[in-house]
Design goal:
Elements lengths: L8 H4 L17 E5 L28 H13 L4 E5 L9 H9 L10 E6 L4 H11 L3 E5 L5 H8 L4 H14 L4 E7 L8 H10 L2 E7 L17 H9 L4 E3 L9 E5 L5 E5 L12 E4 L4 E3 L8 E2 L1 H5 L4 H13 L19 H4 L2
Parallel strand pairs: 1-2, 1-10, 2-3, 3-4, 4-5, 5-6, 6-9
Antiparallel strand pairs: 7-8, 8-9, 10-11, 11-12
The structure holds S-adenosylmethionine and iron/sulfur cluster (SF4).
S-adenosylmethionine binds next to strand 3, strand 5 and helix 11.
């Protein structure tokens, strides 16, 4: 069942796929596509300093393979593609990836939305071309505003490059612009207010993430995690926080600061999981579909893509992945097993 050319696509795909609904009634609309496991930083909560086992270059999906999967996913009701990694801007064909995906029309006749999560380092040189290619939304990660801390935390002395990336993002006009920070005890938990004020100055929304057990070194320690309650208590000393209703499937719960217009988000995957509304699937850079960040099961698209499989088989694998989705992750269960892949190889 090969898909027709893009020009005829919006009419023809209407019949290709039913929505991707799991056995708990969740409809999947968001596909996170990891473009590489490589990165220009080595954040302690994500990657080891040395000795990372990289994915084999031959197994990394090509531009054509990513587009093929994305077209089937869009026909099945995926409306947002978030490009991530590793560091997505390290892909040499990143502008073309954005252009190809942005050209996909969903069954409703609307184009899909293209978002990206990045460490920002290559944004100054690449952002104009990415916007021209169809990038619509941007999240940039920044955990600290202090150079010495940044160097320690990421094991690279590149804070200035990230700040330049955020300045480029602000200037690009892409909104809402979101800044992400993993809150860490005795590392950056004295900078939460500074980070929110920094975000406000850059017309961005700050979002704090509870640290999750996804580091390649398996060193996560619940006792050292900064919780959503602690984050809110710290921010409450500076602002009056009012919850924003209508979160939908978004991972971040939001609070208005002093009645608005600015707000802050918290992604509390550990202490306040939001699995009941999860609408996300993930595709790793080596063609594995995952139905949860914390899943230990993967659905392998590579044999289908490389041994002459057709679009119906890609669709079938997407549906198997969705069918296998558990009601929630088990981080808080004593039997929880951390996935073998680190966050950089899953796609955050
Ligand atoms: N390199 C890009 C970046 O850092 O934005 C994209 C990939 S990174 C894996 C995506 C997001 O995952 C980042 O915001 C990062 O802070 C977050 N992240 C990585 N490891 C994490 C962990 N163990 N717990 C919580 N968030 C994590
Ligand atoms: Fe790289 Fe992002 Fe992981 Fe940091 S969080 S090491 S920037 S992939």
């Amino acid at each position: 069942m090969p898909l027709p050319p893009a020009s005829a696509q919006s009419a023809a795909v209407a019949g290709l796929g039913a929505p991707l609904v799991d056995t708990h009634g969740r409809v999947h609309r968001d596909l996170r596509i990891s473009l590489t496991d490589r990165c220009s930083l080595r954040c302690t909560y994500c990657m080891p300093e040395q000795g990372n086992e990289w994915l084999a270059k031959t197994s990394i999906l090509s531009l054509d393979e990513i587009e093929r999967i994305a077209r089937v996913a869009a026909a099945d009701g995926i409306t947002t593609f978030r490009l991530t990694g590793g560091e997505p801007l390290l892909r040499t064909d990143i502008v073309e990836v954005v252009r190809r995906l942005a050209g996909i029309i969903g069954p409703s006749g609307s184009p899909v939305e293209i978002a990206m999560t990045t460490n920002g380092i290559r944004l100054p040189e690449l952002l104009p071309a990415l916007v021209d290619a169809g990038l619509q939304r941007l999240n940039v990660s920044i955990d600290t505003l202090r150079r010495d801390r940044f160097r320690e935390l990421t094991r690279r002395d590149r804070l200035e490059d990230v700040l330049a990336g955020i300045a480029a993002a602000e200037a690009s006009g892409l909104r809402p612009l979101k800044l992400n920070a993993v809150a860490m005890r005795d590392v950056n938990d004295d900078e939460l207010v500074d980070l929110v004020e920094f975000a406000i100055r850059h017309d961005a929304q700050m979002r704090f993430i509870e640290q999750m057990p996804l580091d390649a070194g398996h060193t996560w320690d619940r006792a050292r995690m900064v919780t959503q309650d602690e984050i809110l208590a710290t921010l409450s000393a500076r602002w009056t926080l009012t919850p924003v209703p209508g979160r939908g499937g978004a991972p971040a719960a939001r609070w208005m600061l002093d009645g608005g217009p600015h707000s802050v988000g918290v992604i509390a995957s550990v202490t306040a999981p939001f699995c009941g509304d999860c609408d996300r699937l993930r595709l790793t850079a080596d063609g594995q579909l995952r139905n949860c960040l914390f899943s230990t099961t993967e659905y392998d698209l590579l044999p289908i893509l490389r041994a002459g499989g057709d679009e119906g088989e890609i669709d079938g694998m997407l549906r198997s992945c969705v069918r296998g989705k558990m009601p929630g992750h088990a981080i808080n269960d004593p039997s929880f097993l951390q996935p073998a892949r680190g966050m950089n190889a899953i796609g955050g």
